[in-house]
Amino acid sequence: MTFKVLISDPLSEEGIQPLEAADNIEVVVSTDLSPEQLAEEIGKYDALLVRSQTKVTKEIIEKASKLKIIGRAGVGVDNIDLDAATEHGVIVVNAPDGNTNSAAEHTMAMLMSLARKIPQAFYALKNQKWDRKSHVGVELKGKTLGVIGLGRIGAEVATRAKGQRMNIIAYDPFLTEEKADQMGVDYGTVEDVVRKADFITVHTPLLKETKHLINKAAFELMKDGVQIVNCARGGIIDEDALYEAIVNKKVAGAALDVFEQEPAVNHKLLELPEVIATPHLGASTVEAQENVAIDVSEDVANFLSGGLARNPVNLPSVPKEVMRKIEPYFHLSEKLGTFLTYLTEGVIEEINIYYSGKLAEVEVAPLTRNTIKGLLKRHLGEHVNDVNASFLAEKKGILINEHKTNTSKGFTNLLKVEVKTTKGTRMVAGTLLNGLGARIVQVDTYSVDFIPSGHIVFIRHKDQPGAIGRVGSLLAEQETNIATMQVGRSDVGGEAIMLLTIDKHLDLDELNQLNQLADIYGVTAIEL
Ligand SMILES: NC(=O)c1ccc[n+]([C@@H]2O[C@H](COP(=O)([O-])OP(=O)(O)OC[C@H]3O[C@@H](n4cnc5c(N)ncnc54)[C@H](O)[C@@H]3O)[C@@H](O)[C@H]2O)c1
Ligand SMILES: O=C(O)[C@H](O)COP(=O)(O)O
C-alpha cells in the first residue's frame, strides 16, 4: 500500500528525507494552495505536513476522508483544529524540541535589539540619518526579566538572560518555589511578575486561558518604562492594550515576532517607533527547520507504517517503559470489546473495565481506549480509532469507568469488560497466558478458555442431553469443522452455553438451521 503525504508549507528538504526515502510513501510538496484548493485536494491524502501558515480548519478536516495524521513541523498547533482532528480520528503530531534553541536565541536577539534600539538606529542610518541622540538604550545587566511560561523556550531564555546578568522572575502553573530555586529564578504569580519586571517576555502556548493574559489591567500594574517581548504567539498580549500602553508612555518599547493575525502588514503597532518586529522568524534557522522537519517526518513515516507516534498532541503520549508493559495486551483489549458487541443488545450506557493482577500496577489508559475502540468499531465503522474512541463514546453519553482490583481469580493478569445497556449487562474477561498468548476465560458467569480470534459461534441452550450432539451433527452436515468447543452451565437443567471455534464463516441460512434445533435459545456468529 502506498500512502500519499501532502506538504503544504515550506519544509527543509533535508528534513523530509525520512518520508522521501520510505518505499510506501509518495510525497507531494505544494506550498501555494489557497484554503479552497487545499479543501479540494485534501481528500487524496493520508498525511498532511504543515508549519504555522496552513490553517487546518474543521472544514478541511471534514473533507479529508483518507487523512490519518497531521504533522506540525514546529511547536504551536493553534493553526490546527484539534477537536475536529480528534473527532475524525486524525492524530496530530508536532516537533516540540527541534526549534527551542532557535526560538530562545531569537528572543534574546529581540530583547537586546529592543534595549539598544538597534532596528530603529539602523533604519535611520539607512535613511541617511546619523542620529545618536534618539537611540540611547538601557543595559540589561541588573534589570529584572519577567518570564511568563517557563517551559522549554522560557527556561532557555531565562538561562541566557542570567548570562546577561539579569535577575529573573517567572510564573508558570507547573513551577514550584523549590524548582524555581533550583533554576536560580525567583518564583512569582503573574501579578508579581508584571509588577516587578523591567522587561517581560511571554513563552506560553496560545490557549483559552492565555488569550490576552497581558491585558489592560496587567499593563496598569507594570512599572513605568517596562519593555515587552513576544516571540511566542500573537494573542497572548492584547494588541489594543499594548498600543494604548505605548502611546500613554507606560510601555517604553515592544519587540514582536508574532501577531494576532498573520501575516501582519499595515498593523497599527508597526507605526509606533517604539515597536520593533520580525515576521514570525523565531524558528526560521537552517538548524531548527532541519530538526523539526526530521522529527515530524520520522513520526509520520513510522505512524503510517503501523508504528506509534512519538509526539502526539491529541492523544496522551505513553512513556516507552509503560508501552513495553501494556503492548502485549493491546490485541486482547480490542478483542474483548469486539466480542461484547456481539453479545449486547440495546444502547450502551456504561462501560466498566476492570484491570487486575499485574495489570493493576500499570498505566492502562491506552488499553481502555483500545477496548472502547473494539466496542464502537463494529457499529460506527473503521474510522473509530485510538484517537477518537473515547471522544466518540463521550459524545454518545456513554459512561466509562476504569477499575483496578486485586481479585484476578488466580490469573496473574485479568482484563474484564462489563457493558451496561438499556437491555441488560454483559461481561467478558480475558488474560494473557505466559508463552501461549491471549485467552478469553469468562463470558458472563461462565468460565471458558478460547483464543479470541477467527470464527466463533456462541450458543445459549437448555442443559439437556442431546443438545450438544444435535449442534455437532448439524455443523458436520454443513461441512463446518469444529476446532474447539467449550460448554458451561449455571444449574443442572437450566440455561447453558456452547462456545465453538470453527474453521469457516457461517452464512445466514446455516445460522438459522442452528437456531431452529430443539432446546436452542439463541445462536450468535462472532468474527474476531
Ligand atoms: N516565534 C516562533 O517562531 C516560535 C518558535 C517556537 C515556539 N514558539 C511558541 O513559543 C511558545 C512556547 O513554546 P515551548 O516549546 O516553550 O512550549 P512548552 O510547552 O515547553 O512551554 C510552555 C509553557 O507555558 C506554560 N503555561 C501554560 N499556561 C500558562 C499560563 N496561563 N501562564 C503561564 N505559563 C503557562 C506551560 O506550563 C509550559 O511550561 C509556544 O506558543 C510556541 O508555539 C514560537
Ligand atoms: O510554534 C512554532 O514552532 C513556531 O511558531 C514556528 O512556526 P513556523 O514553523 O511557522 O516558523
Distance between the termini: 24 Å
CATH class identity of the largest domain:
Alpha Beta
Oligomer: single chain
% residues in beta strands: 25-35%
Helices, by number, come to 18
Beta-strand segment tally: 22
Any idea what the radius of gyration is? 31 Å
Bound molecules: nicotinamide-adenine-dinucleotide, 3-phosphoglyceric acid
Helix content: 25-40%
Mean pLDDT: 94
**What is the third-level CATH name, the topology of the largest domain?**
60s Ribosomal Protein L30, Chain: A
Family: Belongs to the D-isomer specific 2-hydroxyacid dehydrogenase family.
Protein name: D-3-phosphoglycerate dehydrogenase
Keywords: Amino-acid biosynthesis, NAD, Oxidoreductase, Serine biosynthesis
Function: Catalyzes the reversible oxidation of 3-phospho-D-glycerate to 3-phosphonooxypyruvate, the first step of the phosphorylated L-serine biosynthesis pathway. Also catalyzes the reversible oxidation of 2-hydroxyglutarate to 2-oxoglutarate.
Secondary structure: elements and pairs:
Elements: E1 3-7, H1 17-20, E2 25-29, H2 35-41, E3 47-50, H3 58-63, E4 69-72, H4 82-87, E5 91-94, H5 100-116, H6 118-126, E6 144-148, H7 152-163, E7 167-171, H8 177-183, E8 186-187, H9 190-196, E9 199-202, H10 216-221, E10 226-230, H11 239-247, E11 251-256, E12 275-277, H12 286-304, H13 320-326, H14 330-343, E13 348-357, H15 365-380, H16 389-395, E14 399-405, E15 413-421, E16 424-433, E17 437-443, E18 446-450, E19 455-462, H17 467-477, E20 482-489, E21 495-502, H18 508-515, E22 520-527
Parallel strand pairs: 1-2, 1-3, 3-4, 4-5, 6-7, 6-9, 7-8, 9-10, 10-11, 11-12, 13-14
Antiparallel strand pairs: 13-15, 15-16, 16-17, 17-18, 19-21, 19-22, 20-21
Helix pairs in contact: 5-7, 14-15, 15-16
This protein binds nicotinamide-adenine-dinucleotide and 3-phosphoglyceric acid (3PG).
